[in-house]
Write a structure and sequence with these properties.
Chains A, B, C, D: InterPro entries: Ion_trans_dom, VG_K_chnl. 4 copies of one chain form a homotetramer. With 234 residues, chain A is an all-alpha fold. Chain A has 11 helices and no strands. The two termini of chain A are 49 Å apart. Chains B and D meet through helix 8, helix 10 and helix 11 of B and helix 1, helix 6, helix 7, helix 10 and helix 11 of D.
Chain lengths: 234, 234, 234, 234
């Protein structure tokens, strides 16, 4: 009933095909095979959905076809038949990757998933706050650089959205170097921005570290509490 | 009485206008509308301040006009009428963003704000120390590079403040690449600086992580302590 | 019996030779000496293996020669005699570095090694998940950039593997700047990628911090538990 | 007796002079004044050392002059009189910054200093291990890039020390971009190196976070333990 393992294997194969798409002649055949396999798998999946009490009967199967995952599956197949395997449908086929997410929930990774999701969820307001601070810094620093550099580098800092490109590269400490301030005041503010970028990275890292640490401690406390009565009973 | 939600919405709209200011003809109208709305809101706010017992009566309202937030509001409006909406007043209007900070204190984010501020405040001396270490590293590494590179790249390393620009870009691991050492000794010291930059990032991150972790544990301890008597009473 | 300290010293010397290999005439002699010393050491090691009850006798020594570490030792010597000290064997000789790993397990670093390995092992599923998320982000962002930039920069973004080079540089916040997006949509997605790169760094850092923190707490709890009975006995 | 506050203020002033050393005529006077002030302060300090029982008498003062800090003070003054205030003595005068370290130990920062130093010292073996791993990665990745790129970019990757410059810039995620691999295999290994660079940053950050967290918990436990008897006594 569950073809996930097979389909994910094919999905991985398919992206490997995408990785080597500089020689498209060879991969045309593989693409047709993959499309056929996915169509077959989709058919089997719709048929097998009838086994599930929620989707029993013909109308149940139709209802299944409108669940989120089934639509993703359909979306990944249809473009091939419509466009004949053109490259533009490429991103949609990447949606199949989302099914790997489902796969990650299986097996030993499941508890890790729950653990991480819970920890992040518990501190979501703190993370939202540091995201808001990051957004404020982004807009403020690009506004400053726009004021100081627009005259000297109209191409790179001629408007705030253009300055935002520099701002993102600096605050995330990526620092491409395709756009850099050249006026002394611009450099001064850029330095302040770069130093603030450390805070931008340190803040969510610290919050996540504390969240994971807290989740682990609560786990340990639960274990200890269930153990304590036994010890007391001895 | 509280127009914050409305004003912040307008503030967001206004920065979106700023984001698309490459076509200023269209945004002139929006700017006038926003200025009128903010003036109206400022009037309502001053009038409504009379409801607050601290600012009752005419003299109370005048006193309200000299509170920090009221001055920020005034500063954001006045430039428009003085300059007729020129671009130079742009940064001052960005001050309105500060009002979003007030908004962040409302609702569910309020406790997150208090939590983060408390944790950072508790470890402010440790953070100040690592900031001092960062400042020392910045000056020391730019002095080294100035000594080794000034002869070969007078444009980039001809003085210590010029070398500081490189120093900030390296220690924060931004690394624009517009200025790089070319002598072997300069590269050696630059490598040491880059490696020290890891410490510069790791130190505040570790301190913040520990601070958040500690704040969470104290929270948990408080909950447990208030729960313990109940358990003991059973 | 254990020549590790000596061999590691020679290994360090040897890489210093490698470091200064721009003047190969001088280092030829050192290379021959090192090769002879390592051959001698290998002979002594094989002979001394007989002292170990597992490798007693001639057949035991032959068995020892096929253990993993003995093969590494052999691999590091053979190329010199086959190629006469050519540069191509250089990487294989770097395998000797692996023996330093063994050395790190000795002395005071041993418990640190066990501590770090245990902590990482305990959270291996969480780390695997964030590695999977990183891989997904890498492929997704390079696919996006491929779609938006392939037309304008066929050299840099002409295929997904080419875009992956940019993608790795951005997500790890290295940001060489040799390849940067030039279209507005490409820059937008690049900004999102750069911001996601912060999460990519914050996630494993947070997990590791929590793992080390948890390992330290368990250590402290063990100490306290073994101390508690003594206190109760008083 | 303690002139530290005054001397550190002068030291800060002096580096500000160094910051503006592009106009040396004006700063010549300031330099002479500072040198005289420091000479005076050194004399007062040596005289005042006699108040300390360890350095009583003339021979005690001579002994004081050979303590580490007094030598640093002397080193910072002598070059001015020998070279007549030349720029080469500049780095030695920066040694005065070290005296700021002493100042940082005073006041409220003192406990923060002890706290951070203790936490780092407790995990020194783990930090040494991750430094060793970083060193191994540095040498290994530069060796790989040397093998793949030496033929195509002899200027940048012609020897291992040259490749090390690239290696440091990549592993620390600085990424100047002045030197980048151009061969596919070189890019593949560079990507692996960049991804390993995340681990290189995450490891010490995690260790430091756990160390600070642990130090805070031990502090809290001490407080609780000293409080517990009081509670039990009630």
């Amino acid at each position: 009933m569950i073809l996930i393992v097979l389909s994910s294997l094919i999905a991985i194969l398919e992206t490997e095909a995408a990785i080597r798409d500089s020689a498209p002649q060879f991969f045309m055949g593989a693409q047709i095979l993959i499309a056929l396999l996915f169509t077959l798998e989709y058919g089997v999946r719709v048929y097998a959905a009838g086994e599930d009490p929620r989707f029993r009967g013909l109308s149940g199967r139709v209802r299944y076809m409108f669940t989120w995952w089934a639509l993703v599956d359909l979306l990944a197949i249809v473009p091939f038949y419509v466009t004949g395997g053109a490259q533009n449908a490429f991103l949609i086929r990447l949606l199949r990757f989302l099914r790997l997410v489902r796969l990650l929930r299986l097996g030993a990774l499941s508890s890790a998933w729950v653990f991480l999701a819970d920890a992040v969820h518990a501190r979501r307001f703190e993370l939202a706050l540091s995201a808001a601070a990051a957004g404020f810094l982004l807009i403020f620093s690009s506004a400053c650089l726009y004021l100081f550099e627009a005259r000297h580098q109209p191409e790179a800092f001629g408007s705030i959205p253009r300055a935002l490109w520099w701002s993102v590269a600096t605050l995330t400490t990526v620092g491409y170097g395709d756009v850099t301030p050249i006026t002394p005041l611009g450099k001064l503010f850029a330095s302040v921005t770069a130093l603030a970028g450390i805070g931008l990275i340190a803040m969510p890292t610290g919050i996540l570290a504390a969240a994971f640490s807290d989740a682990l401690r609560r786990q340990a406390d639960c274990t200890r509490e269930t153990e304590t009565p036994n010890t007391a009973g001895d």
